[in-house]
Amino acid sequence: MPRMSLHPALIFLGGLVILVLGAELLLRGATRIAAMLGVRPILIGLTVVAIGTSTPELAVGLTSVREGMGSLSVGNIAGANLYIILFLLGLSALLRPLPLHLQSVRLDVPVMIATALALLLMTLDGQLSRNEGLLLLCGAGVYLVLLVRQSRRESAAMKLEFAEEYSRDALKTETGLKPWLWNLLLLAVGIALCVLGANLLVAGAVSIARLFGVPEAVIGLTIVAFGTNAPEAATTLVATWKNDRDVAIGNLIGSSITNILVILGLTLVASPGPISVDRGLLWIDLPLAALVAIVCYPVFRSGQQVSRLEGGLFVSAYLLYLGLLFWLRA
User: Fold this and answer.
1) Residue 173 has what pLDDT?
2) How many CB atoms lie within 10 A of CB 99?
C-alpha cells in the first residue's frame, strides 16, 4: 500500500482522478477495438460500455481484496447499485420524466432483481467464496447470451439510436496498423492508470476510515461508490440534458447487473480467501439493494416511464438512506 505522506483525502482524490481518467481511456480503446472487430453498435453499448464504465469498481474490488479489505469491495458494489438506481436514475427522472422505450428493459429489470436476490442469498452465511464468484461469472455468461439474442429483436429505431451513439465514425474505425496500435495503447494505459488510481483511492479511503473511526464498509457504500460511478453520473446528466436517454439508462441498468455478475464475480475469484461480509451490509444494505431492484419493476412498467414524482421519491429515499447510514453506523 502506498505510504501516507500526504493527507488521506488528497490521496483519495488523486486516486479518484487517475481512476476516472484510466477508465475513460480504457473504455475508449475497448469500444474502438470492438468496432474494428465488427461488433455491432448495439452490442457495444449493452456490453463493452456497461462493463467499461464499471472498470473503477473492478479496480477497487481487486485492490481491496489484495489488501485484505473485503468489506470495502462488497460495500462498494452495494453502494454503487443503490447510487445508480435510486440517485442517478431518480435524478434523471426528476429533471425530466423518463420514457422507457428500450425493449431490453424487459430482460434487464428481471435479471437485475434476480442478481440482487442471488447476492443476498449468497451472503446469508456471512461470507462470499470463490465458488460463488464462479457462479456469478457463469450467470454473466448466460446474461450475455440473452443480450445477444435480445439485440437481434430490437426495433430499427433503437438500433439506429445505438448506431448514432456508438457509430463507426465516432469510434474512428480506420483501417491499417496505426489505429490498432493506438487503441491498444489507450487500452494498456487505461488499465495501468486504473490500477494506480485504485491503489491510491483504496489507501486513502482506508486511512480516512481509520482516521475518523468509520467502518470500511460505510466508506465503500459512500465516497468510494460516488467516486467509482463518476462515469455513469456524467453520462446520465449529459444524456438528460440532450433528452437522448434510452442508451444511457440502458447502461445504468446494465451497470447495476454487471457490478454483481462480473465485477464482484471477478473480485471473488481473485480473492485469496473467502470475503467476510459486514453485518451492516448483510442486514441493511444488501436487502435494501434487493428491495430497490424489486420496486423498479412496477415503477418501470407503469406507463412505460419513470415520472417526476417517482424520480423525486427515488432521490428522497437515497438521501434518507445516506442520512440514516451516517447517523447509525458512522
Assistant:
1) 52
2) 15
Taken as a whole, the chain contains a residue count of 330
The three-point CA angle 224-143-131 to 5° equals 70
More confident residue, 234 or 59: 59
Radius of gyration from C-alpha coordinates of the chain: 19
C-alpha cell at 263: 465485477
pTM: 0.80
pLDDT at residue 242 tops 90: no
Cβ atoms of 236 and 88 within 8 Å: the answer is: yes
Q: Which three cell numbers stand for residue 57?
A: 469498481
Cβ-contact 109, 297 below 8 angstroms? yes
Fold of 8-329: A middle domain of Talin 1 (1.20.1420)
Contact 80, 127 (CB under 8 A): no
What is the mean predicted confidence (pLDDT) over 168-177? 56
Eight-class DSSP state of 277 = P
Between residues 27 and 46, which one has the greater pLDDT?
A: 27
Residue with cell 491499417: 176
Angle at the Cα of 169 from the Cα atoms of 167 and 170, rounded to 5 degrees: 65
Copy the grid coordinates of residue 205.
Answer: 479511503
